[in-house]
Amino acid sequence: MSADQIDALAPAESAQRQVQAFLDKLNTSGDPPLETLPPEEARQVLSGLQSSTQGELRPAEVSQHSIEADGKQVRLTIVRPPHREGPLPAFMFFHGGGWVLGDYPTHERLIRDLVAESDAAAVYVDYSRSPEARFPTAIDEAYLATQWIAANGAEVGIDGSRLAVAGNSVGGNMAAVVALRSVLEDGPKLRMQMLLWPVTDARFDTVSYERFANDHFLTRAMMVWFWNSYATTAGEREGLYASPLRATHAQMRNLPPAVIQTAELDVLRDEGEAYARKLDEAGVEVVALRVNGMIHDYGLLNPLAELPAVQSALRQAAHEIKRRLA
Which residues form a coiled coil (predicted)? Predict the structure, then answer.
């Protein structure tokens, strides 16, 4: 077989047809770019997108809590499988949205799906968003909440000895950083880290950034805006608590097992996969999965929630949580 024939057989990077239809509608809407809007207006765009598709939510018991740790008040939403008694294993959940967008309602369907399939509770952390709060406020709140649940989980029906961290997009970044801090600062003993299409570095120079900079939902310009809203100095961005990919192998060595999902058509694809490879090089157990034909936040976006590939990927994530917290 000739080289030309081999090239002809090579798969093209293209979206699944339902995903492409979603992108076509998004890209021809005429709406202003998200990064040009004031933060409150941008937040309403994500909220509106999520509420535009009304699917049935999986059953769950939901409660609100406020904790105080290290002089900070942090609000939590705990989502439990229904009709379960006693302390449950749990995963801390840090939401995506570029540190600027997103809240519990925009992520509720994703969280409930993971809870239903994993048979574990979720502890959603309502961290302070940017630009109103800057680095390291949000990650400090995420870490303090994780410490509190590990030490005091029984007060809210959680078994703090069976605890994982999870998050999507920048929430995946925060989950990775909380795992790093837990090791480097002798913090909670976590069972696993679930990083869903995560941000792992503050650079914008990967192949996936070049290929999918525009017209694939999450754009390069949006990520630049998100980083400018969150961490404003080069020193902040280069630190491992903002860019966990900068951690050394020695710093990674004792991290808990990781599951990392990436999307083929995502500017963040390459940095997520680079983090998986670096964890493996450091001796950390890693399961890395790329979902072809998908865009960033495929598991979050309610308009894509019924796609078989999305449902399969989320079942895989939930199964890994269940296995590690057993």
Answer: none
Domain annotation covers residue 194: yes
Of 130, 169, 208, 243, which is the active-site residue?
169
The domain of 146 spans 31-325
Q: What is the pLDDT of residues 180-234, one digit of tens each?
A: 999 999 999 999 999 999 999 999 999 999 999 999 999 999 999 999 999 999 9
Task: For residue 129, give the nearest of 150, 153, 100 by alpha carbon.
Answer: 100
Q: Which residues pair with residue 288 across a beta bridge?
A: 260
For residue range 301-324, what is the model confidence (pLDDT) as tens digits?
999 999 999 999 999 999 999 999
Q: What is the count of structural domains for the chain?
A: 1
Active-site residue, selected from the candidate residues 140, 159, 201, 266: 266
List all residues 6 or more positions away from 185 whose beta carbon is below 8 Å from its beta carbon.
none
Question: Cis bond leading into 136, ω under 30°?
Answer: yes
Give catalytic status of residue 169 as yes or no.
Answer: yes
Residue 13 belongs to a domain = no
CATH number of the domain enclosing 71: 3.40.50.1820
Mean pLDDT of 263-274: 99
Mean pLDDT of the chain: 96
pTM over 0.70: yes
Among residues 252, 235, 98, 270, which one has the least CA distance to residue 169? 98
- Of 95, 107, 216, 296, the catalytic one is 296
